[in-house]
Structure prediction request, 144 residues.
Amino acid sequence: MPESLWVRLTVEASRVFREVCAITGLDRAPLERALDEAARRQLTLAPSGDRDVCPYVAALTDGQPGSSADDIVLRISVEMRASWERCALERRSTLDAWIEACLTERTERAVRWEIAAASEGRTLAEWIYASALAAPASTASSSA
Prediction:
């Protein structure tokens, strides 16, 4: 998998995950477990022959890059960049520092979540929102 794709998936998964937690009031740890379970269920539902149907999913399942993310050129949409910049500003951070912080979170999960999303024909953000809203009530914050 190209490192730039891995970085984009990891950062976007982190951004959307934080956004879902903030909007819904769901606790982070139970939500992560619920999303992991949703991804596991999706991947066990797909017959092994489906890898041939979706080359993107097949490419994602080949693994994540092993080298550092230094000097990677990211090609992202204007909308995604605006979302990332907004998040960095909200945290009083530079965009580069915010991206670096995101890369320390949910790295292996991001790829599994993207595989599940792509298998369902959804974007990563759509899949995280849909899966979070379908999560069991035990995922909710104790203050909710």
